[in-house]
Amino acid sequence: MAEETQKPEAAAAPAPAEEVVVEKESEQEAASEKPTDAVVEDKPAEAVEEEPKVEAKDTKVTESASFKEETNIAGELPDPQKKALDELKQLIQEALNKHEFTPPPAKDKDKPAPEEKKEEDQPATSAAETEVKVETEAPAPVEVKEEEKADPPIEAPAPVEVREEEKADPPVEAPAPETVVETEVVEKVSAADDDGAKTVEAIEESVVAVATPPPAEKPEEEASSSLKPDEVAQSEEKPEEAEVPPPTPQEVSIWGIPLLADERSDVILLKFLRARDFKVKDAFTMIKNTVIWRKEFGVDGLLDEELGNELEKVVFMHGFDKEGHPVCYNVYGEFQNKELYQNTFADEEKRSKFLRWRIQFLEKSIRKLDFSPNGISTIVQVNDLKNSPGPGKRELRQATNQALHLLQDNYPEFVAKQVFINVPWWYLAFNMMISPFLTQRTKSKFVCASPAKSSDILFRYIAPEQVPVQYGGLSRDGEQEFTVADAATEVTIKPATKHSVEFPVTESTVVWEVRVVGWDVNYGAEFVPTAEDGYTVIVSKTRKVGPADETVISNSFKTGEPGKIVLTIDNQTTKKKKLVYRSKAKPYSE
């Protein structure tokens, strides 16, 4: 046993937080198994040492994936994850039955008022209660003295209390509170100085009276005097029992999908489980907090709010990555516009509006995702830090931190990748500042690129025809000859080399698009016929294209004979260049 238990401890050593959770669970289990055993203290240690085996398996499963998304099909999950999913469903069903997803703030605001009233009433009743306590202590010694049948010594203060309470003695016959019954005992004891037998009978009657009648202080119960005290108590308990079980379970949905409905619900629950390393209780707490936050924040009503379009160039959706994830671009450089910056972050009210706009934008994007087990339910985030105001702007930093908290706490596992491009020198310091607010799983998805390598990094995950033209791609707004369905080709041109691109042409019209990221190269195009006696036609004379001249060169050529178009790119610089192009033939009639 000693050897077996030491091994899991060594495996679980890198995660001390998880060990603490295991210890608590094991102590509770050990206590529930043998609550009265004196040797229980030795056995929790064994349970603590055995259980980390399961935890270690779970952590290995969750840490194994960094950029590859795990399956959302319940049947394909490992056994520990299946078990965690089933346990989470049970907790959610119990919470729905008890209506635990209702936000509590409204009730909490009403509670202090009645509490204050109770505190005000307490001083008035405290004197009576203290007298009752004093009097209740009196019957005990009297009963003891009944066996001796000798009660000559009676203290003087007792008759004083009797005189004060005698005024309230007439309604004693009705079901009265315990205080009046106890005063009867004191009266009869004081009046029984001459005859000890009578005092014994009186005390016996008083004891029975105290035990049988229930506390009845309100006059409303006198109207139901025909009922016996036991029947009254049962009638009062029945409505309380009817209120405890809710008539129907609570219905809760997130992003338009019920928590417990079908396979789509499993996809959502798996997001929360993965965000908490498949710790069921933590995942349940996160779901509960998210549902309550959404109700308090008014997320469902937020979708229909008009918050303006001033920030449409700051955050926008554009295209898909190579795996089909929608891509969201965050352009922080737009905040170099002082007017836009002031209108967005000048005060708390404006920052709150920006946060609501950002949540609204994210909610609308999530509603377009596919939550089926084989669907795509995550987004790729591209963060452009070119000309960003930087972390020195206090207002921007506050809004960013607040948004990070909300997104990480309430939108788990919605980001497939976080790609940072045009990263400046200060980003390392900024990254160190926000790292404590990010989980290890979140940080494992981060990809950073300097300005010189930003396009290469984007093309690694997103096809050039899907990348906006301002980031080195071919995608542009408006009507174009090409669409995202027309795939582009990427080529890397080495320094001080000339590269040629050829594509065949028949009796038709051919169109093409070409761009070199950063340009600063010589470009030319010509048509070479297939026939040996044909003549080469210069389509575009060789010329130097600078970085700011053109982003994309589009051209076309119509011919009545077969041949080929030859594009020549001469890179005379000492840097590698990324070439992107595509072409297609159009019917001759067009």
From TrEMBL:
CDD domains: SEC14
Origin superkingdom: Eukaryota
UniProt region (Disordered), positions on chain: 1-180, 208-252
Keyword flag Mitochondrion: no
UniProt biased composition (Basic and acidic residues): 21-71, 79-89, 96-121, 143-152, 161-170, 228-237
Record domain CRAL-TRIO: where: 304-479
Gene Ontology cellular-component terms listed: cytoplasm; membrane
Location of the protein in the cell: Cytoplasm; Membrane
Chief location: cytoplasm
Alphabetical keyword list: Cell cycle, Cell division, Cytoplasm, Lipid-binding, Membrane, Transport
One of the GO biological process terms: cell division
Occurrences of domain GOLD (ranges): 480-585
Molecular function terms from GO: lipid binding
SUPFAM superfamilies the record matches: CRAL/TRIO domain, CRAL/TRIO N-terminal domain, Supernatant protein factor (SPF), C-terminal domain
InterPro entries according to UniProt: CRAL-TRIO_dom, CRAL-TRIO_dom_sf, CRAL/TRIO_N_dom, CRAL/TRIO_N_dom_sf, GOLD_dom, GOLD_dom_sf, PATL, PATL1-6_C_GOLD
Bias (Low complexity) ranges: 8-19
PANTHER family noted in UniProt: PATELLIN-1 (PTHR45932), PATELLIN-2 (PTHR45932:SF27)
Similarity-based family: Belongs to the patellin family.
Identification of the protein by name: CRAL-TRIO domain-containing protein
